[in-house]
Amino acid sequence: MNYQQLNHTIQGQGPAILLIHGLFGSLSNLGLLARDLVQDHTVISVDLRNHGHSFHSDAMNYPAMAEDLNHLLIDLNISSAIVIGHSMGGKAAMALCNIASDKVSKLIVLDMAPVAYQQRRHDNVFSGLKAVINEKPQSRKQALDCLAQHIEIDGVRQFLAKSLHNKDGYLQWLFNVEGIINNYQHIQDWADISPFNGETLFLKGADSDYLMPEHQAAIQKQFPNSKAHIITNTGHWLHAEKPIEVLRSIRRFIKK
């Protein structure tokens, strides 16, 4: 075997649900969803490659991430799962449908479209991450102060700080900063997949511009059995900002 297993947690009993976080995240990011879904499902939460406690790699693209997820399902002897992914994790989930459609019983994509994005949204984040690497902060406050010089939104700084850990006497990033920066074009990119005919739900944050009307043709081409639902008064982090509404939509879709 020339692959490495993704770090993951397994909770609960019942039909399998695979939860996949977004860029700069970790398996705890969809914890609000997991805590509810675990009541009647087996919930598998993963750290994608170069994130959390999973392995670091120079390669980071959606075919590779899909293979990681497929290998994990094989290792866990899971023949079918409801797959839920946010942002980059949504693209990884969609890519999984391209190589293992038989394993995806239903697909739920949180605020992401199957398209290549042109706008660079994370250059300030990259500057902040590199500043922390250079600063070698010894406290969380030092790290947050360092990030604040580059990242205006406190919520983003707090989110990133969840991936700091103490090593060799100072705080370091769990995720592979260099690997993510070097592969950012691949993360932005997308190659159309073969049509996935399984039931699919796209959940959009009303105030987010990641999932837009102009993406409808690409969605219908690749996910012909899909529907969309808008969560009002929320942005890209809809599952964190409106967990009750997101869970209601997920459960309604799962029960059908």
From TrEMBL:
Key words, A-Z: Hydrolase
One Pfam entry name: Abhydrolase_1
Domain of life: Bacteria
Coiled coil region boundaries: none
Annotated AB hydrolase-1 domain residues: 15-243
Keyword Hydrolase attached: yes
MF annotations from Gene Ontology: hydrolase activity
Keyword Transmembrane: no
Protein name: Alpha/beta fold hydrolase
Species of origin: Vibrio casei
Lineage: Bacteria, Pseudomonadati, Pseudomonadota, Gammaproteobacteria, Vibrionales
